[in-house]
């Protein structure tokens, strides 16, 4: 994982939210089965 600002490789990752949905973007149960 790299720093977004300077592109330096990070040695210690505190939290990785890469695959988390954006705020107010959680899917409903019905949306989980949509293509």
Let me know the largest β-sheet.
none
* Termini gap: 30 Å
- Tertiary shape: elongated
What is the residue-averaged pLDDT?
Answer: 83
How many E strands? 0
Q: Into which percent range does the helicity of residues fall? A: under 10%
Structure description:
This protein is low in regular secondary structure and 35 residues long. 0% of the residues lie in helices and 0% in strands. It is elongated. The two termini are 30 Å apart.
Short synopsis of the structure:
This protein has no helices and no strands.
SSE topology sketch:
Elements: no helix or strand
What would the keywords be for this entry?
little secondary structure
């Amino acid at each position: 994982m790299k720093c977004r600002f300077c592109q330096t490789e990070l040695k210690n990752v505190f939290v990785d939210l890469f695959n988390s949905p954006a705020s107010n973007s959680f899917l409903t149960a019905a949306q989980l089965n949509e293509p």
